[in-house]
Write a structure and sequence with these properties.
With about 475 residues, the protein is an alpha/beta fold. The chain has 20 helices and 14 strands.
Length: about 475
Amino acid sequence: MIVTQEDRACNNAEPQTNKISISGNIVPSNWYHRLLRPCGKSDTTAIAILSELVFLHRYNGNTEFQLNFNYFKRKFNFGISQAKDAVIRLEQAELLKRSLRTVIVRGRRFTNEMFLVLNIENVLKLNSQDQAKKFPLSGRKEKTDSPEISSDNIDKKENNKKSRSSESSFVSNSFLENQDSPISVVTYKQRFSLASFYPLTQSDIDKMQYLCGREFSGNAINEILQSLSIKLPNHSFPHKAAFIKYMGKALAYEMRDAVKISNESFRIKGNITSEENITKAREEFLNEIENSRDTSAKMQLSRKLAGILEPSIAYDFLMSASFVDNTESLKADNFKIILRKKLTLSQSEHRLILAQVQSVYGDHINRLNITSSQDAETTDASFKQPRALQKEDTKSFEGIWGKIRQGLIDYYGSGGNAMDNAWFGKLTAEVDSNAKKLTLKAPTKFIKDWVQSNYSHLIDKLCSLHSYSLEEVRCV
C-alpha cells in the first residue's frame, strides 16, 4: 500500500473537538482529600471559600481582602452560619487570618469590617503530593480518640481481671458481715441526665459529627439535645462517653435535614419558652411601630416613645394607651391619654413621655392627663419640683444641649443627677443651628473617651428627637 503525502497530513492533523471555556477558579482535586470535616468527609464549604481567596490572589496579587460572610453567601449560596464556621475552621488550620477593623470612606466611619489574610505558605502545602498528610479542620482527631474511654470503664476492666482467679470469691462476695472489717456503706454511682450536658462544647460536637456522619451545625445539635432533654427527663447516663455515643446514634437517625436546619436562627418550637415568645412579640410590635410610614401626630408620638422608653415599658404603655383627639391641646396646656389597663409609671418615665409629647404637639404643653379606663381614675403627670431646683435648671439647662441633658437625667431616673454632675455637666456644646448638628467638647481625654463609648448612642438618639444629630465628642 502506497501512502501519499496527503494521507500523512491527514493522519497528523489534530481531531476537531469542541473547546471547553471555563472562567473563574478551579479547585485542585487533592484539596478534597486533605481538607476534611470531623465526620471524615470533604469540607466543601471551606474548600470553596479558600479557592475563592486563591483566585482573587492570582487575579490581583494581593493576600489581604476586605470580605464579609454575606459575600460568600451571595457567591456560593451558603448560609451565613455555614460561611462563618468554615472561615473559623480555615483560621484554626492556619490557612488564613481574619481581623476586624474600622474603615473611613469619604468621611463615613464603618466599624467591625472583616479582613481576611491568606497564608500563601500553608496553602502551597496543600498542593504537595503527600496525600497521607491531612490538614486538621475544626480540631479533628483520629478515630482511636473517639469516643473517649472513661475512667469508670478502666476500673471495671481492672476489677474483672482481679476477679478471674482460681480461688472462690464466695466469702468476699457473700452477704455475711465481715467481722474483721468495719461495716461498709453501699454507695451508688451518680448518673447524668440529658439536660446536664447542655450546652455542648465544640469538642463534643465534633465527636458527635464524627459518629453520626452528618454535618449538623453546633446550634442544631444543641437544639436537638434540648428537645430530647424535655421529652426524656428521666433518661440518664453513667458517664459522658455513653452520652456521646447515644447522641451520635440519635443524630444518625434524625429525620430533619442537616443542611436546612444548620443556621443560627433555627429553633425547635418545644424549646422556646413563654418568656422568649413574649420578648419576640414585643420586638415585632415595637419594630412595626418604628418602621411605620404613617405621618400622623399620634404615630409620630408612638415612634418617639418606642425609641426612648425601655422596651418592656414602651410595649406595655403603647399596647394599652389610646391618645385622645388632642386638637384642643394645640391651645390647652394638658395632654389626654387613656389607658386600657392601670400602669405604674415612675416620675422619670412621666417626664420622658411629656418631653416626646412636647416635641410633637408643642412646648406649651406642661401636663399629662392620664386616665385609666378600668377605674376611671385620673393621674396628674405634671412635674412639680422644688423652686430651688427649678431656678437651678433654668440657669444651667438652656438651649438644645440643656434639653438633651434633661433627657439624659430623666432616662437614668434617680441616678440621673449624679451622672449629670459626673459627666454631662462637664461637657460644653457647640451648636450649628443651620446644619442641625451638635458637637460636644470634653475637658480631658478620659472624659471624652468615656462619654463617647458609653453615652454617645443615647445622646445621638435624644438629638434626633429634636431634629439634631451628634457630630462628634472631642477634647477642648
